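Palmitoyl-protein thioesterase 1
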Amino acid sequence: MKKWLGIIFLIKYILAHPTPIVLWHGMGDTCCVDFSLGAFKQFLEREIPGVYVNSLRIGNSTIEDFENGYFMHPNKQVEYVCNMLANDPELQDGFNAIGFSQGAQFLRGVVQRCGHKLPPIKNVISLGGQHQGVYGLPHCGALQHATCDYVRKLLNYAAYYSWVQHSLVQATYWHDPLDEIMYKKSSQFLADINNERKINKTYIANLNRLENFVLVKFDSDSIVQPRETEWFGFYAPGQAERLLPLEESNLYKKDRLGLRKMKESGKLIFLSTPGDHLHFPQEWFVEKILKPYLL
Ligand SMILES: *[C@@H]1O[C@H](CO)[C@@H](O)[C@H](O)[C@H]1NC(C)=O
Ligand SMILES: *[C@@H]1O[C@H](CO)[C@@H](O)[C@H](O)[C@H]1NC(C)=O
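Predicted structure tokens:
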């Protein structure tokens, strides 16, 4: 009996043409190696038979992909991915997308900046994305890599220098709550996609076109500071202790990005899981994300 159920399940998916999935990896990671996103791609392919998964490689090789996560300007990365997605024939009927860590805010950049030129983007899952930026990079987690240490030092001293903004990816989403004016003026990526300087209506319309925007926060995250940024929360302006949830921020109250509308219509989903950054049990992912949003 169990075997038959399995076969029926399988036929159902083959006939249903599962919606393709796009993955965007995080800092210090790459698209395809076996022990990271490569394994996650295989996991999705196992759980959703017949699914097409495009794990984005930013660059011509794995090494470039790794380096670009630190040094290729997010505005360029977003443009690069917009082109890649527009030219992928497998995605032409629409797709879901999952962003890991900084890949999640870059994915949102893609939705907002070129969503109107792409096939329908249905559900976007943000796993530990830094939607209000970061203020601090406490350590590099498992990636005790020289590049990461260099990045940490530079961010603490010079994040808003123009040359740093131009040359260091993480500076473009550095958010200093003690100097909001500087952040709004100088952040070359995040302040723009969060409509902090001006309101771009295309951004709002494109984001609102999603079926669901799912924000996952890791409750024991030791890498992202503050972890509330994963739900669009951040420090209240002028200090770095008291946190404001999205609902109490100006971004929400003045609805500069259309998030209030999305929340009220049930499209903005907040999930959390107890682990550290990007650590989650597979069963949790299957129940909370795969079944509701990816099937
Ligand atoms: C891919 O290679 C070309 C030719 O060497 C180079 O100009 C381009 O910048 C590379 N792409 C990326 C995204 O690094
Ligand atoms: C708003 O965003 C769209 C899409 O990226 C862009 O084409 C347009 O120039 C932007 N408008 C303004 C006023 O910045």
